[in-house]
Design a protein that fits this description.
It is a single chain. Helix 1 runs parallel beside helix 10, helix 4 runs antiparallel to helix 5 and helix 6 crosses helix 9. By secondary structure, the chain is an all-alpha fold. It has ten helices and no strands. The protein is globular, with a radius of gyration of 21 Å.
């Protein structure tokens, strides 16, 4: 009699990938909902929030190293590669945010759906990694279903299109490099996360200072002509006690969640592929929509 196939265990690659996928979905949905609370409280500065997240990651791994709870990779990653991967990650966040601000939500969803075929093309032409026709057909059905469910209006502008293309390319390259660099240097997902976190903090700090720390547009000024919509203005309001209670604790909670999201993301891509990560990502999209409707219902639905 033919024996039943062994079930994947936690220590097996498939078992680890399953837990990474579950952790990625849960932590990603949680951080989106908690980030929304932070933005609703008046702290709507994504680059500065990302800077806090990456700084927290750097400090976290330094503490693990000091306690001998974390092992450095045996084959150090060159600084140029660290910066390249880190900058692609921060650029992905930045271009996605700019694309969302310049385009309709419908086109933003289209850009997210486009990441899958672009990743397939880059993998094929740059890394000679091919995909079976069955997988391509499955992905086509998945993308069509998600597209019908999430894409409503598609308002396209030339500048928005340019940033949308940059967002897709930077996101695809970042996710591909998460996988290839782990294999190239024989490191785990956490070791890669540690290796690039400093440059991610540095890049996001530069973007925060450039676009969020000061008022650069007339609409950021209040009736008295003073800056009211910047991180510096928010800091002044916080010192004066004019911000909601608990905002610092909520920001700290997003730091923990961001660490967990990145840990699961690096681990999942390292164990599987960027395409698998994108498929898991579309499951997150559905859960975020459901969570947003449950926890942040529209006024008309109340």
């Amino acid at each position: 009699a033919r024996s039943a196939p062994a079930r994947p265990t936690l220590g097996s690659p498939m078992g680890a990938a399953t837990w990474y996928a579950i952790g990625n979905v849960l932590s990603s949905v949680a951080i989106v909902l908690v980030n929304k609370r932070v933005f609703a409280a008046g702290f709507h500065f994504p680059f500065t929030l990302s800077f806090f997240h990456f700084c927290f990651t750097v400090v976290f791994y330094r503490l693990l190293l000091a306690c001998n709870l974390f092992e450095l990779p045996s084959s150090p990653m060159p600084e140029a590669d660290k910066f390249k991967v880190a900058f692609a990650g921060v650029a992905s966040i930045g271009f996605m945010n700019v694309s969302l601000s310049l385009n309709s939500v419908g086109f933003y969803q289209v850009t997210k759906l486009t990441i899958v075929p672009v990743t397939l093309l880059i993998n094929f032409y740059m890394y000679t990694v091919s995909t079976t026709h069955k997988v391509k057909l499955s992905l086509l059905i998945l993308l069509a279903g998600v597209g019908i469910a999430t894409v409503s209006d598609v308002d396209l502008r030339p500048l928005g299109l340019a940033f949308g293309v940059l967002a897709v390319l930077s996101t695809a390259m970042f996710q591909i490099w998460q996988g290839t660099k782990q294999k190239e240097y024989g490191m785990s997902g956490t070791q890669l996360q540690y290796s690039v976190s400093f440059y991610q903090a540095l890049s996001s700090c530069g973007l925060s200072l450039a676009v969020e720390s000061f008022c650069l547009a007339p609409q950021q000024l209040d009736g008295r002509g003073e800056c009211s919509d910047s991180t510096m203005a928010f800091l002044s309001q916080w010192r004066a006690g004019r911000v909601p209670d608990g905002i610092v604790g909520t920001i700290l909670a997003t730091c923990f969640l961001a660490l967990l999201v990145n840990w699961c993301s690096f681990g999942l891509i390292g164990k599987t592929s960027p395409i698998t990560f994108q498929v898991v990502g579309h499951a997150k999209t559905c859960l975020v929509l459901i969570g947003g409707d449950v926890f942040f219902p529209l006024a008309g639905d109340a």
